[in-house]
Specification:
This protein is of the alpha+beta class. The protein folds into 2 domains: about 5-45, no CATH class; about 45-95, no CATH class. Helices cover about 15% and strands about 35% of the residues. It is built from 2 helices and 4 strands. It has helices at about 75-85, 90-95; strands at about 20-30, 35-40, 50-60, 65-75. The chain has a two-stranded antiparallel ribbon with strand order 1-2. The chain has a two-stranded antiparallel sheet with strand order 3-4. The longest helix has 9 residues, at about 75-85. The chain starts with 19 loop residues before the first strand and ends in a 15-residue tail after the last helix.
Length: about 110
């Protein structure tokens, strides 16, 4: 289905070496608008042999964390990227170290 996410905070989990590292944070623009900023570090090119699993927790009304509240699995990560992240793909193409790569899969490391 279609989802709308209204995050109040993005908290980095314990540091561990992964092939793809996501480091995001919330930046408040106005009293009712925030944007997600950050970076993605790829230790290898992103191609369709990769699968991505996004697992998030939510903070409940008494301040505890409910693990695995949202689990989203993406198979064929490179091809599916645009479907999931929309126009973000165009932005990423402009901000990679190597601007001379093929605009399709795989994305360079």
């Amino acid at each position: 289905g279609e989802y709308k996410v209204y995050p109040r905070a993005v908290i980095q989990c314990k540091q561990k070496q992964h092939l793809f590292e996501f480091n995001f944070y919330l930046n408040r623009i106005s009293s009712n608008t925030s944007e997600v900023k950050g970076n993605i570090t790829c230790m290898k090119p992103l191609d369709d042999s990769d699968n991505i699993v996004i697992i998030s927790a939510v903070k409940d009304s008494i301040g505890g964390w409910k693990d695995n509240a949202f689990i989203y699995k993406i198979s064929k990560a490179c091809s599916t990227f645009e479907k999931v992240f929309g126009n973000l793909r165009t932005t990423l193409n402009l901000t990679t170290k190597n601007n001379n790569f093929n605009r399709n899969c795989p994305y360079p490391a």
